[in-house]
Write a structure and sequence with these properties.
244 residues, mainly alpha, Serine Threonine Protein Phosphatase 5, Tetratricopeptide repeat, 2 domains, three-stranded antiparallel sheet, 10 helices, elongated
Length: 244
């Protein structure tokens, strides 16, 4: 089958070329994790010893090595059945996963968010499409400890773009769309004062003072209950300014 894109936002899957999200049917959980781990390293060679320590840390080396070889074979068989141009290469006691030109959503997202041009009417749709790539946190459905650093980095990039796009929308008459975007982002970063301040400003622009007060009071309560802190002076200042 043709593959339009390999995806790691939310869960590991592929676009089948027709816009449909399809998941590989892995024989074992370790086959899925090894594939994801090699994909995580973007075609870089990973030493066999690192793979053994990461995926089979509690097994004797000889048994772990057997599991590695078996798992590599399972992945090769699966991608062959799918007739996709994905391969696992081996050289000098190292492995790498090669996508052979197949797009990868994380790489696409990173390239687009490396630059931070001002949001304009001309590029707004481009950034909306970039945000649409973020279907969930990086491999969020799996408990892989090695994902945490990249997961945090990608979430930070996502929130940065959300704030910039929402600020543009608020300033150009798309307040409802801005609020939808910000409320969704709040689920990812509930303690973000930047998001809270922009929500308050948007409610103020709409003249919805009751909603503004409810949102601020809920945010203050959340910070106090979960973190034992108060909002920053900047957030308090923005709130008081919005009331006026």
């Amino acid at each position: 089958m043709a593959i339009g894109e390999v995806r790691c936002f939310g869960h590991l899957s592929v676009d089948d070329g027709a816009g449909n999200d399809r998941q590989f049917k892995w024989k074992t959980a370790k086959a899925q994790e090894l594939f994801a781990y090699l994909l995580h390293h973007r075609e870089r060679w990973i030493a066999k010893e690192i793979l053994l320590e990461t995926l089979w840390p509690d097994y004797p080396k000889d048994k772990a090595l057997t599991y590695l070889h078996t798992t590599v074979s399972q992945i090769r068989k699966l991608v062959k059945e799918w007739q996709v141009q994905i391969s696992i290469e081996y050289a000098l006691d190292s492995y790498r996963l090669v996508l052979d030109g197949i797009p990868y959503d994380v790489s696409e997202f990173e390239r687009a968010t490396d630059r931070e041009p001002a949001i304009t009417g001309q590029n707004r749709l481009f950034y909306e499409n970039i945000l649409a790539l973020y279907r969930g946190d990086y491999l969020e459905e799996y408990d892989y400890p090695w994902t945490e650093t990249l997961k945090s980095n990608l979430l930070e990039r996502y929130l940065n773009v959300v704030l910039r796009v929402a600020a543009y929308e608020m300033e150009h008459g798309f307040e409802r769309k801005a609020l939808e975007r910000l409320h969704f982002a709040e689920k990812k970063a509930p303690y973000s004062e930047e998001i809270c301040r922009l929500v308050l400003t948007t409610y103020a622009k709409q003249g919805k003072l009751a909603s503004l007060n409810r949102h601020y009071e809920a945010f203050v309560k959340l910070l106090h209950a979960d973190l034992g802190i108060e909002p920053s002076q900047e957030t308090i200042r923005i709130y008081n300014q919005c009331l006026k």
